[in-house]
Amino acid sequence: MLGTSDVIAFAAATDLDRATAFYAGTLGLRLVDQSEYACVFDAHSTMLRVAAVTEVARAGYTVLGWRVGDIGEVCAGLRGRGVAFNRYEGMEQDDNGVWTTPGGDRIAWFTDPDGNTLSLTQFA
Questions:
Q1: Which pTM was predicted?
Q2: Per-residue pLDDT of the chain (124 residues; tens, 9 = 90+)
């Protein structure tokens, strides 16, 4: 039934102005709308709604991710905008924080200002 419908992605934030600064200013997503309840971004034709909440329940996994063509280039660009990449014990990550899966995919993780885990993936 939903195979031809567009997906809407969601994230939560305690401060929508701070979320807007991060998602638009740091990540470069276009702000489409903002109200007291949510900010809406165009994430390459996918709607991303960052909803206002009192407290963000931090998930122990990635909540949003982007497929990228050159992960090293994107990591360098984001680092230049102040993004720090997460390091995980037991995972062999390169200087950019990128982990290469046994199948050759390359993944890096970072967090937004509310602690939501975000990722970049360059598929092999």
A1: 0.94
A2: 999 999 999 999 999 999 999 999 999 999 999 999 999 999 999 999 999 999 999 898 999 999 999 999 999 999 999 999 999 999 999 999 999 999 999 999 999 999 999 999 999 9
Q: Which amino acid, 67?
A: R
